[in-house]
Amino acid sequence: MSGRGTGADVARGNAGARAFDAIVIGAGAAGLMCAAVAGQRGARVLLLDHATKLAEKIRISGGGRCNFTNVNAGPANYLSQNPHFCRSALSRYTPADFIALVKSHRIPFHEKHRGQLFCDRGSEDIIAMLDAECRAGGVDRRMGVKVAGIRREAAGDDFVVETDAGEFRAARVVIATGGPPIPKIGATDFGHRIARQFGLKVVESRPALVPLTFDAREWQPFAGLAGIACEVGIGCGEGHFVEDLLFTHRGLSGPAVLQISSYWRPGEPISIDLLPGRDAAGELLALKRESARRLGPSLAEWLPRRLADVWLEHARAPADRKLAECPDALLRDVAGRLSSWSLVPNGSEGWRKAEVGLGGIDTRELSQSTMEARRVPGLHFIGEVVDVTGWLGGYNFQWAWASGHAAGMAI
Ligand code: FDA
Questions:
Q1: Which residues contact 292 (CB under 8 A, 6 or more apart)?
Q2: The model's pTM
Q3: Count of C-beta atoms within a 10 Å radius of residue 157
Q4: Cβ partners under 8 Å of residue 299, min gap 6
Q5: 20/37 Cα distance (integer angstroms)
Q6: Cβ < 6 Å from ligand 1: which residues?
Q7: 357 strand-pairing partners
Q8: pLDDT, tens only, 290-324
Q9: What ipTM describes this predicted complex?
Q10: Alpha-carbon distance 268 to 278, whole Å?
């Protein structure tokens, strides 16, 4: 990271409060990036977080190895009421920019799957890198500080941030307090409350990238499949993915279901293709002519055996019948149902298990280039607190870096 020194004037009055150019609230992915960029451009930055440990969500991300970006990240990988909003920030700070930063800190990493980049050693490498970048920018970082509120006497005045460590004043405040998932590691709805306090619209939040659950009685036949995984095609609304599905005691999880959960709305069905990329009808009809096999064992060549058995029983299909004795129409019907298995979840595992939240500060309230609230000059929102939600696979961190960078360049 580099830039020009443009520290704003901090010498205005307001006795008692300590003055900075910018106060960033939330020392997670987006807040660390923003503070480092602004600090390195010469701004006097205070970075506050109520947690005592730095960047817990980065630490636990990617199973402890932080899937820190996706080389393919682009606007099409994000959900928002305004899908174009993220375009500007994402194009000005790209996966290549973050990869260059990671390389400059000599952090070893690897590509795991479909452009997803993970640390070889662990997430701590990314936290240490961002912390070092903040130090290089002279950022005053304080952890364990409870923020009681933010006030501004009149438009044009500095903001005063009230905390249990005293009051701090700055012309600019950046809200980087993340989304509601995993309250036990410090997630709060602080950002939404501040937005509402200043009269900004908030798109209601709901859990995303989250396992889906089913009515216990309806799920009973499948509950015994917990732990079984297979690749499927999955669709709901405008979302469609080919990823791994995992059966759980209460429903479905795995990358396929986490991805589709962002598109699912209560009451809607999801559609699962258990045999993606396979012409199941054509293959079953060919097998019928060529072999003496039965339906169940034939399916078990394509699907995990227990899943094939349970699915056929549930579909009331004759697993023990010889293919040669099955009418073509029956085989076509079984194949059709295998490729579009329709299920209606009764809910999700909620904020406790969600990786991110859909919704947040309405993007119509913000400038896409600076992340500043149009109606409240000086107040910026970045990262997950904004109504921009990425797919699973490193996209959410890329949004945190890009939006943090956009605000950091503007303050
Ligand atoms: P983030 O949550 O990182 O930071 C917010 C900060 O604000 C926290 O430090 C919090 O303590 C602080 N804060 C909150 N309220 C406050 C208050 N009132 N006062 C002061 N401070 C306050 N994404 C990805 O791209 N790749 C991955 O591998 C994963 N893996 C993953 C695993 C799990 C289990 C989860 C829950 C999430 C992921 N994610 C992910 C998503 C990713 O972690 C998330 O999108 C980013 O951390 C969001 O960055 P932010 O900076 O916006 O919030």
A1: 322, 323, 324
A2: 0.94
A3: 15
A4: 308, 311, 312, 319, 338
A5: 15
A6: 25-31, 48-51, 55, 57, 60-62, 66-67, 147, 176-178, 181-182, 186, 188, 190, 355-356, 383-385, 394-397, 400
A7: 207
A8: 878 899 999 999 999 999 999 999 999 999 999 99
A9: 0.99
A10: 26
